[in-house]
Design a protein that fits this description.
The complex is a heterodimer.
Chain A (H helix, E strand, L loop, with lengths): L5 H40 L2 H35 L1 H35 L6 H30 L4 E4 L2 E4 L2 H5 L4 H30 L4 H35 L1 H7 L14 E8 L4 E8 L2 H7 L20 H30 L7 H9 L3 H16 L3 E3 L3 E2 H4 L5 H31 L2 H12 L1
Helix pairs in contact in A: 1-2, 1-4, 1-6, 1-12, 1-14, 2-3, 2-7, 2-14, 2-15, 3-4, 4-6, 6-7, 6-11, 6-12, 7-8, 7-10, 10-12
Chain B lengths: L2 H30 L6 H11 L3 H18 L1 H10 L1 H20 L6 H27 L16 H25 L6 H28 L1 H9 L1 H21 L2 H24 L2 E3 L2 E2 L8 H30 L2
Antiparallel strand pairs in B: 1-2
């Protein structure tokens, strides 16, 4: 019953590369923003704490950035390696967007990254701040183009067809396809949140050891303020993105909700809190649900319903349990974040943010929550659009390169071996860098200045 | 090929040459690791490329993505043809990048220097072998994974790339690190240069024998090739006049890379790959090419500007 064909293996390879890459990518977006902000504040206010924070996070960023770049390069090639049918037919659109990403973002990031890391002391303060900003700008530009490309595949627009080839007709519509802005906002906010949780967790860990450390205090406070503004914003952005998906990819939303069929006797759609969606019987087992809640957030009414899964032939539905659970995971993580933010505001109000040891301990555990939500979100959106590679136009089955199974298995073995080794070395390095005392950075900078 | 496609062909070819040159010296520094003598020289050598490796590697990503945008049929044929080889190459570049970014943070210089040498060795071989296969007209069938990188002409190509990158790397080190100006190092560079040159000549002869189409193109376009060589020669003389010894060797190596690759492109054009004329369906639509070109026209001058700025400010000690 369990067998993997060429398509499954090619998807597994691409998915594992993406899930690996997206961690570094999210942290690169977040950390580059954070560092640019710290660098400019340090120059503007002349406050040593900002510069200490900058120097504390810089090595984390360089290590993370390196891993992000190299895993990203793998992705650029994997498209052509694994999805021959797709790249041949849609290169005139997808390839052009990727080229824009390379020339507007990759070179910018790479070059100014060199200046940011190695130019300190060699180039002036202004130029150094500018370099830090350019690295962050590069990260956002890169997201813009790659998400434009992904969005076009999810909600294609502005194209025509010449036989099997996709021809761009209106580039504006191609780049700003119906889901692109929603995806860009949702992902950028997610990257900031994921990074802020990593920063907050590490700050909390240091405060548990030394509650008077001014650098760690600032670190925690800044990260929590960031989360206070961005987490609620993300929930709104996520809701809007969901509504956009409902309009453009209704079957994905039906799978996210595990909504199999209308039950006329019930008013509105319940929100399924937990269940095992069973694709064979086209129903949910072991259901725990809240009446009408799903209608409320999907249609903003108490009675309306969305199209159920059974409106589509079985071959055009995604893997329902996978999409359902990855979506639940993302949403539940999101609301946990909101809870954490609320508690932090209360503690701030009580002026005991740095003293409540139970809270600091809890914060150290939240280190991966943002990253977990990102992984879950990407599984939802990518698995949810199956069987399509270009929604409604081309299936992944039509696109896949016809390799033999052994070829894919051996390359998968190579990839996973390297990823495991790099993850191991990266995790070790992360904790090694994290153990450094933030307060010591302050002293080091003073010595450097004198 | 119409004008738009030709311009993109030239830009992609140029990007590839720049990649060979820039990542050539980066990988070349790795290849020179065992021959640098003192521990401190190796340390300086690695630090001389860390600020640049990433941007250098990006030229390959650019060449490949522009190929994808402008000539999707070719992109989607040659990548799968060398499936395992490319996956392994990517993993080697992956480890190489990690080594650079983790280098200062782990105190394991010996291990990392060895990794740098081995990844550069294997990556240079694979690039040379794949390039030779493409030059032989392999990699054009629709059957994925049929490229053969162990044929003797591929192996020769691999050796040429290894030696060529080593020459670039040692010229770079001579330019950027004063400790490499010793007599012993000069003797090493001279030997390396001569061996590389001999291997290159051998490889060219083998390619011309094995691929008659290439030989006939060289005959047809003798005039252009002679012209390019003349430009190269004038460039070499100018370099000698205008720069000091330390910079000259790197600039000569750079000119040689550009000259050689230009000759190869001249022989391939107007095919996309030798022996495979660019058919109607092989080139992306006019709308795609035009939009791509607009982006490049805006971005490339900026890229060149800030790249030069970064070299200027980071190389002054």
């Amino acid at each position: 019953m369990f067998s993997l064909d060429t398509l499954d293996l090619a998807r597994l390879q691409f998915a594992s590369t993406l899930l690996f890459h997206i961690i570094f990518l999210a942290l690169s977006i977040g950390l580059s923003t954070y560092l640019a902000f710290l660098r400019c504040m340090a120059a503007w206010k002349g406050d040593a704490v900002y510069m200490a924070l900058y120097h504390y996070w810089l090595p984390h960023f360089t290590a993370n950035y390196g891993a992000g770049v190299v895993s990203g390069v793998v992705m650029a090639f994997e498209l052509g390696l694994n999805w021959q049918g797709f790249t041949r037919a849609a290169g005139g659109i997808n390839g052009v967007l990727l080229s824009y990403e390379v020339v507007t973002a990759f070179f910018l990031e790479a070059t100014f990254f060199g200046l940011m890391i190695f130019g300190e002391g060699k180039i002036g303060t202004r130029m150094h701040c500018f370099s830090a900003i350019m690295v962050a700008v590069g990260a956002y530009l890169s997201s813009f183009w790659i998400l434009a490309s992904n969005s076009w595949m999810q909600t294609p627009a502005g194209y025509g067809r010449d036989g099997s080839t996709f021809i761009p007709v209106d580039w504006f519509q191609v780049i700003f396809s119906p889901s692109s802005i929603y995806r860009l906002v949702h992902m950028s906010l997610a990257a900031m949140i994921a990074t802020a949780f990593v920063v907050a967790a590490i700050a909390a860990w240091h405060l548990l050891k030394d509650r008077t450390d001014p650098v760690s205090r600032k670190m925690l406070s800044m990260a929590l303020w960031m989360l206070t503004f961005v987490v609620p914003l993300q929930i709104v952005a996520g809701d809007l993105h969901g509504l956009n998906t409902l309009e453009n990819q209704p079957v994905k939303v039906a799978a996210m909700e595990a909504y199999w069929e209308h039950k006329p006797e019930r008013g509105g759609m319940p929100m399924v809190v937990a269940a095992w969606p069973d694709s064979d019987s086209e129903s949910n087992r072991f259901v725990l649900e809240i009446p009408r809640l799903s209608s409320l957030y999907l249609t903003h009414s108490l009675t309306e319903k969305i199209q159920p899964l059974t409106d589509w032939p079985e071959a055009e539905r995604p893997n329902v349990p996978l999409v359902f659970w990855s979506f639940r995971l993302m949403v539940y993580t999101g609301f946990t974040m909101l809870g954490i933010v609320a508690v932090s505001l209360y503690l701030r109000h009580r002026r005991s943010l740095f003293d409540a040891r139970w809270f600091l301990r809890a914060m150290t555990l939240t280190l991966p929550v943002g990253l977990i939500a990102i992984e879950a979100g990407w599984i939802t959106t990518e698995a949810g659009r199956q069987p399509w590679i270009i929604y409604g136009e081309m299936t992944t089955q039509e696109a896949v390169t016809p390799y033999g199974t052994w070829q894919l298995i051996s390359s998968l073995a190579v990839l996973w071996t390297i990823y495991t080794l790099v993850s191991g070395a990266g995790t070790y390095l992360f904790f090694k860098l994290t153990r450094r005392s933030p307060r010591a950075m302050l002293a080091k900078d003073d010595n450097g200045a004198s | 090929m119409d004008t738009l496609a030709t311009v993109l062909y030239i830009l992609i070819a140029l990007a590839l040459s720049i990649y060979f040159l820039l990542d050539g010296y980066t990988l070349g520094v790795g290849l020179n690791m065992p021959f640098l003598g003192h521990k401190q020289v190796r340390e300086h050598a690695i630090h001389s490329v860390i600020p640049f490796w990433d941007a250098n590697q990006t030229w390959l990503v650019f060449a490949v993505s522009a190929l994808y945008g402008a000539f999707p049929a070719l992109y989607s044929t040659i990548l799968p043809a060398f499936y395992i080889e490319i996956v392994v190459l990517l993993m080697l570049l992956f480890v190489r990048g990690i080594v650079f970014e983790f280098y200062e943070k782990f105190s394991r210089p010996a291990l990392f220097q060895t990794l740098l040498f081995l990844t550069a060795l294997a990556a240079a071989y694979l690039q040379g072998a794949i390039a030779t296969q493409l030059l032989m007209g392999q990699g054009l069938s629709d059957e994925p994974g049929h490229g053969d990188i162990w044929q003797y002409e591929s192996a020769l190509g691999g050796a040429v790339f290894i030696l060529g990158y080593a020459v670039l790397g040692s010229a770079w080190l001579r330019m950027t690190i004063s400790q490499t100006s010793t007599g012993k190092q000069s003797a090493y560079r001279l030997t390396l240069g001569i061996v590389a040159l001999l291997m290159l000549v051998l490889w060219i002869v083998v390619c011309l024998i094995e691929q008659p189409l290439l030989a006939s193109r060289v005959g047809e376009r003798g005039g252009i090739i002679a012209g390019l060589s003349a430009v190269g020669f004038v460039g070499a003389v100018l370099v000698r006049r205008l720069t000091n010894n330390r910079t000259a060797s790197f600039l000569w190596a750079a000119c040689s890379v550009l000259l050689l690759t230009s000759i190869v492109y001249v022989c391939i054009y107007p095919d996309l790959l030798i022996g495979s004329p660019a058919e109607e369906g092989a080139i992306a639509s006019h709308a795609s090419l035009l939009f791509l070109l607009v982006g490049l026209a805006i971005a490339l001058p900026l890229i060149v500007t800030y790249t030069l700025y970064s070299y200027r400010s980071l190389l002054k000690s």
